[in-house]
Amino acid sequence: MKKGLLFFAALTSASLYAQQYVHQVLVANEGYFDFQTNAIVEPATIGSYNPATQTYVVVDTLDGQRFSSDVIIDGDFYFVAADTKIFKYNLNTHQELGSIVLPGVRNLAIAGDKLIATRGEYLQTFDSYLQVFDKNTLQLIAALDTINGPKWATQNIVVVNNMAYVAVNNAYEWGNEKGLIGQLDLNTLTYGAEIDLGAEGKNPDNMFLYNNELYTVNNKDWSGASVSKVSLNGVVNTQNIANAVTGCGTSALRDDKLVYQISMENTLNDYNLLNMSYVGPVAGITNNFYELAQDPVNGFLYASSTDFFSSGSIQIFDQANANIHQFNVGVSPGTIVFDLRSNVGLSENMENISVSPNPSKGIFQIFGLGSNQTYQIINTTGQIIALGQGNQIDLGNFENGIYFLKTEKSSIKLMKQ
Q1: Which residues pair with 379 in a beta bridge?
Q2: Which residue of 27, 100, 136, 161 is most buried, as measured by CB atoms within 10 A?
Q3: Other C-beta atoms within 10 Å of 275: how many?
Q4: Whole-prediction pTM value?
Q5: Residue 404's closest CA among 370, 353, 336, 368?
């Protein structure tokens, strides 16, 4: 028995403290396709990272697909867009439940029972760039042709209420770039008026919703990059963020700012979305990244890097920009999504209790806890792994990861490194 702790195995869940935590992080590795030899050198894969155990495993290989382009989670399922197919998986077992053939599929979105898919490929035309499926059966509901739907290749999708906003960029065709946002009414499945992002808003490469407004990051004509803010009634404000020989390499929403990086550069930049102004470089983070995504629970920034033909890795930065972990993945990790589950509380603290140091290598000091007050230590699966009394926690014999200190009224997240 360690001082202040009685260890035991328990299989009961701490359901009284239910809040969100990151159960796993799905990573879509695009792999390496040699366009000169027309050969798949490294296959596209889907991997799962467990933040609690800091372990990563490949859960499926997308055989026959030159790359993957998107992953979305919906309840107990997730969907993967990969070159010519859409795959549906069980989120818990990663078993493939079905697939449909859709050449040129790029991005996906869910609205009710509808699965929306965009399409596009450089210098290739399709008779439909926007299709809607039943997410349960994967049966086609509607394929909007180029008369009743977008006339050019589409990419990102943002769903707001009963409207799907669709970025139209014409698959980055050199000299014929487009910068539009289409509007698909999800009740009637009719495609309405397109919003023009203007001459400086060509080639939208990313789109997201913030503060009830749409934002796009645009590659223009590869002479630089810009950001467009679009109100839901169609008012557009586009501002240039860089003049360079290349466009924006990657971007993501991080708290209330846009973080972005110009292609082939190592500087990560902050951009204020509310007043549409450049803030400056992100201190402490210097590397060339392929994909960025923020953990919505802890605020951690996941940033992927790759040599595009043999390796890939993901670095995790905390909110102070400290690199807290790094793990290897597949080649060209291009989409990172977070599987959020409801379990133990993450920030609930109704008592004046604090823990230091946190993160720690194993020993945590508790401040503000009564001498006779007991507590539980719970892991991210909801298991009670320890009972304690006193002012010290010793997790030295446990794996690195996230745990939770639970008292009768409070919950504090612990991170063992």
Answers
A1: 403
A2: 27
A3: 8
A4: 0.79
A5: 353
Task: Name the one residue in this structure whose structure tokens are 């223009």.
Answer: 220
- Three-class SS of residue 185? strand
Residue 202 in 3-state DSSP?
A: coil
Helix (H, G, I), strand (E, B), or coil: what is residue 366? strand
Phi/psi-derived region of residue 308, left when phi > 0, alpha when psi is between -120 and 50, beta in every other case: left
Name the residue ranges covered by the structural domains of the chain.
5-15+346-416, 19-343
**65, 44 contact by CB (below 8 A):** yes
Which of 159, 147, 46, 151 has the alpha carbon at shortest distance from 107?
159
Inter-CA distances, 275 with 176, 181, 243, 382, Å: 30, 21, 20, 42
358-373: pLDDT as tens digits: 888 889 888 888 777 8
Give the pLDDT confidence score for residue 11 in this predicted structure. 30
- Alpha-carbon separation of residue 101 from 54, 85, 87 (angstroms): 35, 4, 9
Q: What does each C-alpha distance from 225 to 154, 155, 179, 287 come to in angstroms?
A: 19, 17, 12, 19
Cβ neighbours of residue 36 closer than 8 Å, sequence gap 6 or more: none
Cβ neighbourhood burial of 403 (10 Å; 0-12, 13-18, 19+): buried
Per residue in 258-298, pLDDT tens?
A: 999 998 899 999 999 999 999 999 999 999 999 999 998 88
User: Phi-psi bin for 397: left (phi > 0), alpha (psi -120 to 50), beta?
Assistant: alpha
Tokens representing 296?
């919505």
State the pLDDT at residue 280: 95
The pLDDT of residue 416: 86
Burial code of 120-145, b = ≥16 C-beta within 10 A, e = fewer?
A: beeeeebebbbbbbebeebeeebbbe
Looking at residue 391, what is its pLDDT? 85
Question: Which pLDDT belongs to residue 130?
Answer: 98
The CATH code of the domain at 19-343 is 2.130.10.10
pLDDT < 70 positions in the chain? 1-19, 245, 343-351, 380-383
- Decide which of 1.10.3720, 1.10.20, 2.60.40, 1.10.3470 is the CATH code for 5-15+346-416: 2.60.40
What are the tokens at 315?
């670095």
